[in-house]
Amino acid sequence: MNDLRPLRTPAELAEAGLVAPEELAGIEVVAERYAVAISPAMGSLIDRNDPNDPIARQFVPNEGELTITPEERADPIGDLAHSPVEGIVHRYPDRVLLKAVHVCPVYCRFCFRREMVGPQGLGTLSPEAMDKAFAYIADHPEIWEVILTGGDPLVLSPRRLTEIMQRLSAIDHVKIVRFHTRVPVVEPERIDEALIAALKCSGKTAYVALHANHPRELTPDARAACARLVDSGIVMISQSVLLRGVNDDPDTLAALMRAFVENRIKPYYLHHPDLAPGTSHFRLSIEEGRALVAGLRGRISGLCQPTYILDIPGGHGKAVLGPDAIRVSGGCHTVSDFRGGEHVYPPSE
Ligand code: SF4
């Protein structure tokens, strides 16, 4: 395969040895419906000899995506229900999403915004829409944090990112700017001096939330890109999606969370997979997810524990799904330790 360009069509995937000839017709139908892109870094990471490769599973289209189940929905976490102006999602009082762009360097097959991103998606905000989005943020003094997402905001040029940061820097009540991105992993070469400089501006604290789902994604190049960000003073946190066939086992999850911490990235959210169309082959039950997360307690350092969450369908926000450590009955608390032992609190003696 040509390692220097992204793979964007079924024919390119076949040429790169990622789609078998007999699968090509089905994959072409999937690609007409949902965007396809595999960056050179991810394309070269895929083990062609492993039919269950967890990197391929995240990025190579699959005919399973044509199966839509009744509970799936085009806007699974209800962005549109909370969008007062184009490009803004205001779901919680003190923060907004700013979706400036709906393009990504890779297209994840489980994406919760798969109906919005890609060449046929919502596109990039026009200058007029950007003006309205910034006016909305300026008019709402309760907005303390702006979260740039999309799409992947780090596909924007340093010049565009600088413009965005300069406009946010003029809004006093915004203190935190958070970038949700896959770029440090899937296109690490993009994290250069100019891009890092663009993320920073005086008076605002920049956070980068890295989306990665398997420890192999933290390649030496990705680790170096994250180090450049952290060394510059940017705080990094992680977000991952719990995905069947990618990270649904305790060893993989533990290795992923440890890799984050080793790279100065604080594990933040582990998302239960959303009800995005054509993604049922990725979904676990909540019970399976809770058992996996319970298995991390005690086994790995407290620094490595993510918060397991569900985005409640319809836009009602996030709910923590973590294991219940405490039960209350008859005025008495019973707490469980990480081995499953139960203890009354306060102790009777
Ligand atoms: S990078 Fe994020 S927004 Fe883009 S396809 Fe993947 S999950 Fe969706």
From TrEMBL:
Keyword Iron included in the entry's annotation: yes
Enzyme Commission number(s) from the entry: 5.4.3.2
Entry keywords, A to Z: 4Fe-4S, Iron, Iron-sulfur, Isomerase, Metal-binding, Pyridoxal phosphate, S-adenosyl-L-methionine
Binding-site list for [4Fe-4S] cluster: 104, 108, 111
Top-tier EC class: isomerase
Pfam families, per the entry: Radical_SAM
Official protein name in the record: Lysine 2,3-aminomutase
Organism of origin: Microvirga lupini
Lineage: Bacteria, Pseudomonadati, Pseudomonadota, Alphaproteobacteria, Hyphomicrobiales
